Amino acid sequence: MSTAAVDQVLALAVAAGDVPNATAVAADRDGVIYEGSAGPRAVGQDDPVGPDSMFRIASQTKMVVTVAALQQVERGNLELDAPVDTYLPEFADLRVLEGFDGDTPKLRPAGARATVRHLVTHTTGLGYDFFSADVRRWQEVTGTRGVNSGSMEVFTAPLTCDPGTRFEYGINSDWLGRVVEAASGQSLDAYLDVNVLGPLGMHNTTFLMTEEQRANSVPVHMRGEDGAWQATGVDWSQSPQWWAGGHGLYATPRDYLAFQRMLLGGGTLGDARILEPATVAAAFTNQIGSLDFPASIPTADPVTTCEVNLGPGLKWGYGLLLNTERAPGMRAAGSGAWAGIFNTHYWVDPTSGITAAIYTQTLPFVDPGALRMYLDFERALYASL
């Protein structure tokens, strides 16, 4: 393949100030076909960003934990259609938030028991404070800390609707990580190391970075009052009370590409068998029936995320966003994808035999410049093949 056009996408995005830095990687079923980078790890510094730099992959953690849950299903330790409270009895205490009477939340019992499948498909009704204005207000009036705090308080957050009635992106994977712990009898970090990360050679993927890894990490950048990018100290709690299955991992692009290649390979990478082919095929199959992934998700916190407008015709599999149509010059229908809130994105295209990802570290999520770079990268990559 010719990489010049792909390299140019990254270089132009940095030169235009759309992002402070960028790294992209891609592979086919035979191995890595592209690695490229542009810009410094932190603005104002000389150290370049690269495929071995450490990134906060945030919600790209979700699919790793989904794979762990699917392993437990294959091993007979977990049932997707079992109620969540079978494994975590405290889930039964959650109520549905119907609004507020002044500053008093109006809560009612849920109309159904949420299942593990609901967690995997984001259909429990659990939300995120940066997308759900009701969840955000509930936190404010109750004085409850949010998901980034590392506090167990997050698991007291109410549902926003009855389980199974709509797709609501939220803290489902954080609950799912705890379900994996209950089913396996191991802490989530230990389970992932032994069953997913270790076998795939992902030795730079972790919930807590070493000093050496942190020195090689890319700080989160935000725009200052003058519009210029500035490196910040934004990070997850470094002494969490639980391992965040929804967002907690740091990784290098090279490491995560191994995980993507495993999915592209039907559950296998080299000699490592992580999942059975039928399980992986199910992950790339619509698992939410007549429900849809929202064409537009409003923001409740513009500092953290812009409104997310990914368009119609999207479904959800096991941990993956599925497109039902192919846009010209882009991934095939039935591809699986997701992202991290600091503007990292990946996709796996089984039909074309391609998987790729692009990384920066900025807020807000889906900032127009970062999103434009992502789309330009995808088009340039497919055009180069």
Tell me what the structure shows:
The chain is globular, with a radius of gyration of 20 Å. With 385 residues, the protein is an alpha+beta fold. Helices cover 27% and strands 17% of the residues. The model has no long low-confidence stretch (mean pLDDT 97).
Strand-helix topology:
Layout: H1 4-15, E1 22-28, E2 31-38, E3 55-56, H2 61-74, E4 96-101, E5 104-108, H3 116-120, H4 133-142, H5 172-184, H6 188-197, H7 211-215, E6 221-223, E7 229-231, E8 250-251, H8 253-264, E9 268-269, E10 272-273, H9 277-283, E11 296-297, E12 308-309, E13 314-316, E14 321-323, E15 336-340, E16 344-349, E17 354-359, H10 368-384
Please outline what is shown here.
With 385 residues, the chain is of the alpha+beta class.
Strand order of the largest sheet: 2-1-17-16-15-14-13
The description of the largest β-sheet is: 7 strands, antiparallel
Order of H and E elements: HEEEHEEHHHHHEEEHEEHEEEEEEEH
CATH superfamily caption? DD-peptidase/beta-lactamase superfamily
Low-confidence stretches: none
Gyration radius, rounded = 20 Å
Instruction: Assign the structural class, choosing from mainly alpha, mainly beta, alpha/beta, alpha+beta, or little secondary structure.
Output: alpha+beta
Number of domains: 1
Level of helix content? 25-40%
